What we know:
By secondary structure, the chain is an alpha/beta fold. About 35% of the residues lie in helices and about 30% in strands.
Amino acid sequence: MSVHISANKGEIAKVVLQPGDPLRAKYIAENYLENAKLVSQTRGIFYYTGLYKGKEITVGASGMGFPSIGIYSFELYTEYEVDTIIRIGTCGAYTTDLKVFDLLNVENAASESTYAKFAWGIEEEMISHQGNTFEIINQTSEELFLTTKATNIHSSDIFYRKDPAVPDIAKKYSCPAVEMEAFGLFANAKHLGKNAATILTVSDIIPTHENISADQREKALQPMIELALESALRA
């Protein structure tokens, strides 16, 4: 067991899918994995391990923001010897060039956050995906006939902000959308020499206030979940 994950050694697979929401992890485990076993529920953060097409995969939540995903991904990589983490989540689009339900495969995450600097001495304000999982996702999306856009993403510490303008860092690195975890995950993986990728579904168009309704979310996220699972088979 680690500080924040109560699974025993050997109960976490080498490949982990990591949504933010514990209930989304539960949904994936119950609907996509065979023989899924709840291996940790400390602090209400669920981790399940089961089989997908014969391969052992773990799905478990990261919570929201760099501090949370920083803790869980670090313990997965170091205490449970996980090789690959694929974050799956939602994002808000800064531009109407993106549409709700669009799938994004994150190539680089840019952030104003000091997380990477003070955790690992990484000074860069943009960190790339780590390992070959990004390429696996691109190839798998083609095989599944899914349109997936490789893109930069703005990873922000802030959900609510006074200034509604697109932040300067998003403009600087041509980030069409924003989320809150990829930069922290990529920083941990870079420091530890592990694999990390992020797949996002556009859930909100910020300029127009268009969004995926609560009723639509379960169905809307299915392509992303299936892409992550099929990619995990190859990871």
